[in-house]
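subagent[fold] <- orchestrator: predict structure for attached chain, return tokens only, no commentary.
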Amino acid sequence: GGGGGGGGGSPLNAMSGSSPSAFERKMTSNKTARQQQQQQQRAVPMMQGRLTGGRCFQARLLFRQTQSICEDTIFKLVNQKIQLLMALALDVDWAPSTPPISEPHDYVTDVITYLTTTFISLQKLPSSIRENVPVAGFTLITEYYMEIFSGISGSGSSSSGSGGSSGSRRACRFNMYGICNLSCDLKALEHFAKAQAVPNLHNAFRNIRQIVDMLLTGKILDLSSQIKLEMRTNFKNTEESDKIASIGEMKRLVMILGNYKTLKRKEANILPIEVRNLSSRDVSNAMKRLKAKIRAMEKRGAS
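subagent[fold] -> orchestrator:
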């Protein structure tokens, strides 16, 4: 037969050449893939066995600890910023000689602007953060107002004393012009709270709002009667911690009333018709009644 010239060699001759053919490469690739698959199948049970043991528990625990630290940091940073902005309320003249304002103070606008941006940034976080951060922030604002006008912190310590939790704060003197201005500030905060996704968020301002409305309408006697009724019906069955809290809030109310300054008759004529300029005698009598109820509650609590 003739010589094997040209390119018409048989597949067998091609397979016997020195370089691997496409068929050989395919066979080798399939074998390697099967080996890798088998190794992975053997590794999965081993990995599962390791993760379902102590390592998996430790990983979950570490994740939860990290999550808790991050959440606490969010609360801390937001509260610190709120305190920084609310500190500007100390620079407000709450016993002004000028008529009440129609727009909130600048510090309130700054607080709302900051919280608007903050709440938007929390939208992708868990619901517990989205709901609890606004509640904690607004509760802090209420507490700040209470301390500003009473000089007593939530723990019952005077803010001017060395044992107070907020030693830099001082009790502010105020008149009915200032209470009208505070009501204007609260309306802006309450309106902002109602626009949030958290239900009844505006109720975080309930304590300070009740005091403001009581002063604006002059219903100090009604408040005293309400406290007297609640003391008779509920105090005996109240938990000890709640008794302490209620007495503490009444003491703060007495301190707030002690910082009230009556407007002169000419200044009072500018007040809205529904606002009453409380006399010094009215406030003094209300403070006496409240102090008497506090003593009765403390005596009843000690017995």
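orchestrator: received. Logging for downstream: The chain is about 65% helix and 0% strand. Residues 110 and 263 are 30 Å apart (CA to CA).
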